[in-house]
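Reopening this ticket.

The earlier resolution said the output was attached, but the attachment link was broken on my side. Pasting everything inline this time so it's all in one place.
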Amino acid sequence: MKRPNEINAINALLEILPFFAGGRYVENGSPDEDNSQCKDVDYILAPDANDLPNLAVEHTRVEAFRGQMTYVNRSYDIVHEVDIECQGQLPPDRYFSLVVPHILVESLRKQASKQFISFIVPWIVTTAQTLLIDDHKTTKYAEQDVLLMCGGSHPKINGTIGRIPSGPNDQEDLAKESLWFSIEHGLGKFSKYKRLGYDTVLSLEDISGAIRSSMLLEIETDIQRKALVSTLVDYLIVFASNEDRMIVANVWKENRLRYSPVPFNRRFDRREGKWFPLE
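Inline output:
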């Protein structure tokens, strides 16, 4: 069964294809659901016009670093539990934020999370009494700095603990690695469709805010990677999303062309319920 973001991505793709692919397309199958024996593409699209090729489409997300979504979900859960434990024990005239390092969150499974919460809650309760607005203090846990910040005063969130994200070091390199991982995810599925005469579309959903079109050129300094992308991917389109809805689309690759920067007529956004190029 397709996830909401996959459905929203294919609907967005169907709307923007006429602007650069030469005509309109309609869904004509979901091989990954029909073929349980091996991994396959997400969608087949058929053209309205007979002189256009069928399209094989693969959609996948791009994280700022491998495991970003797991980190986000786990860190929200941990801080939520901390907030529950701290309720009624924090100054009622200001609110607080907790920064738990990415590397620490990765290490906190069920029992370890309970131990961390048992350690950090008494420290927060004591430390919060001393923090003025815009102040912060740190403590050590498992050799990692955990930061408590006093963010300000707001009647709706005073007396609570919120979460501020923390990423790993070397985020530029990790973003490139994550981008290539997402690209590679589609490459192995495209070979048979290229042999059948299909054009291929790799639809990437950037949930990181960390990738940019020049990264494709930087990744392709590796000759083998460039050859794979050149041979197997006809269109590479990057969507930005919000709560699973695609809100911006940029065409990074169109046949032999790589765009960096992406020209305005290959940038799309959603206005009044429809997609339009920026030109």
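Reporter confirms the inline version is readable. The two ends are 36 Å apart (CA to CA). The chain has a mean pLDDT of 91.
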